[in-house]
């Protein structure tokens, strides 16, 4: 039986990237790529502190190191967005907007609820992203058929 499901944004993994990488997204044809190279970026996994947010919490500025990226459409996340406050350390799964390369929230999770976990998430994030990029670069066929 042939698979009749249409291909969509959840067919591949969310790529672990830094805010700096988001600023380097370039559109090549219909695909967004970091520095115009590598795999097509559809979903991203980011982590950082909420630097600021709009009064309705629909737009968040996420700070990862020295770089800030804006996350839009936070009102669409599961569980609502009323808990979003400045200073939280969060994980964001976001979709790259096909028109302008901005990031639209799919999921945001608060990683600050447990002090020990928060420290571990922050301390390991740099290496997690480095490792994930290496794995994807060396084995793109495993992630992007």
Which terms summarize this structure?
145 residues; two-stranded antiparallel sheet; 33% strand
Quickly describe the structure:
This protein is an alpha+beta fold and 145 residues long. It has helices spanning 19-23, 115-138, 140-143, and strands at 15-16, 25-28, 31-34, 43-53, 60-64, 67-72, 89-96, 103-110.
CATH class: Mainly Beta
Strand arrangement across the biggest beta sheet: 4-5-6-8-7
As for the CATH topology, it is OB fold (Dihydrolipoamide Acetyltransferase, E2P)
Query: What is the number of beta strands?
Result: 8
What is the percent of helical residues? 10-25%
Q: Return the average pLDDT rounded to an integer.
A: 86
Number of helices: 3
**How large is the radius of gyration?**
16 Å
Kindly report how far apart the N and C termini lie. Answer: 20 Å
In the predicted model, the low-confidence regions spanning at least 5 consecutive residues are: 1-6
Strand % is 25-35%
- The domain tally reads 1
CATH 4th-level superfamily? Nucleic acid-binding proteins
Net shape: globular
What series of H and E elements makes up the topology?
A: EHEEEEEEEHH
Protein name: RecQ-mediated genome instability protein 2
Pfam families: RMI2 (PF16100)
Organism: Petrolisthes cinctipes (Flat porcelain crab)
InterPro entries: NA-bd_OB-fold (IPR012340), RMI2 (IPR032245)
Report what the structure shows.
The protein is of the alpha+beta class and 145 residues long. The chain has one domain (13-137): Nucleic acid-binding proteins (OB fold (Dihydrolipoamide Acetyltransferase, E2P), Beta Barrel). 23% of the residues lie in helices and 33% in strands. The chain has helices spanning 19-23, 115-138, 140-143; strands at residues 15-16, 25-28, 31-34, 43-53, 60-64, 67-72, 89-96, 103-110. The longest helix is centred in the last third of the chain and has 24 residues, at 115-138. The chain starts with 14 loop residues before the first strand and ends with a helix.
């Amino acid at each position: 039986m042939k698979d009749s499901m249409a291909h969509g944004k959840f067919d591949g993994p969310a790529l672990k990237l830094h805010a700096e990488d988001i600023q380097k997204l370039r559109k090549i044809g219909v695909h967004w790529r970091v520095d115009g190279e590598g795999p097509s970026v559809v979903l991203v996994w980011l982590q950082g502190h909420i630097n600021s947010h709009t009064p309705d919490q629909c737009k968040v500025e996420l700070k990862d190191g020295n770089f800030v990226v804006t996350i839009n459409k936070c009102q669409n996340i599961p569980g609502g967005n009323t808990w979003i406050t400045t200073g939280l350390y969060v994980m964001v799964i976001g979709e790259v907007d096909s028109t302008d390369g901005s990031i639209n929230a799919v999921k945001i999770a608060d990683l600050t609820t447990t002090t020990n976990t928060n420290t571990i998430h922050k301390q390991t994030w740099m290496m997690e992203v480095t490792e994930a990029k290496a794995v994807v670069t060396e084995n793109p066929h495993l992630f992007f058929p």
